[in-house]
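Hi everyone, sorry if this is the wrong subforum. Our group has a chain we'd like a structural model of before ordering constructs, and none of us has done structure prediction before. Sequence below.
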Amino acid sequence: SSLTVAGAWQAAPGNEVRVHSRDALSYSYAFRQAAADMKTAELERLLEPYVTEYFPDRFGAVSDGGTARSFSTFLRNLDDYIEGLEHNGANTFGDTLIALELSLPAEALRPWLSAPGNKKDPAYFDMSRALQAALKETIPFYFFADRSHYRAGEAVVAPLLVWASIPPATKGKSEIFWNWPDRGEQDRRIQDPRTLAALRRRLDEIHRLLRERPEPELVKAAADYHPDDGTVTRLIAAATKGRRTLLESLLFVEAELVEQARAAGLKMAEFQKRKTARPAEAVRALAEFGARLTDAFHRKIHSVYGGGALRPLGTRIFLEAARALGGSAATDWPKPDALLYLAVLKAGADFSPVRFVENEWPAPGDLVVEQKLVRFEEPRRAFL
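Answer:
Right subforum, don't worry. Here is the predicted structure as tokens:
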């Protein structure tokens, strides 16, 4: 996958005529994957989080679970169609090509153009809390999209649920992230009444969800998530047992993302300060801004609870950071334009899946089926 952030700046005019700024940034993300002999259930587990996030109106209302159910039906029907043509076995798509492309309008990136030059500016503290909140929603959302993970065991599930329940926080007004390596500080935040209340709410949601599932094994697993004091105590004990490897890996990713996002903002501020009087230094600062930004919202969007497959959801996290940086509470903040491409190669096709990952496209004659989902945002006013 790749993330590209580009910028365009208007040079200062050589006279005193006032020219309104046309400075702008652009954002584009591309994800490609080719898988041999992909099973229908595997494809659903991979794509369902992306479809729910970027195509919420395509398959039904998210609030009643319609998106997941309708997308599942869509894939099952497509599987039947492929089976009728290829006879490659039930519940099997075959050699599958997947691409996801995302782009953001310029107004969604506008807050970065005016990022503060002071590393302790309140805007960075707001951005830190927004990033923490977005991560705490995104990582569990992706991990539990595979519902078998509810049965992964306390050693795996407990660190994720406990971490996600810790309220977003900074170290007062001195640091944009709290002192997570301090085990005593970890314990204090985990035992904070707000954390305990949030953990009970998460348990209640999971408990109700599993009780309503049709799979008997998930209904049985609901008992492990009963939202009572005993379950809360048990999960905290499991999360903080021994070396705390999983819990601290989540805290590390969270802290690194926050720091890199701030570093990107500071580089943009440096560029804006020097772009007229010291253009060569400004260009270097701009290049560093791009490197920091893509590092924060691409390379660092991963965890043991999803690996690199979390990266397509990094755009969601980026938007939350931009909104916080711009001080906006708008509910209609711009959303990404999105294209999801799904294709299955014919048996014996000349096109190699490796070529697809290297940005080549197959000829129509190489494909059994090809599907595209597209979502475009309506043009909207700029957020200033």
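For your construct planning: The chain is about 50% helix and 15% strand. The beta strands are 2-8, 24-39, 92-104, 337-345, 367-375.
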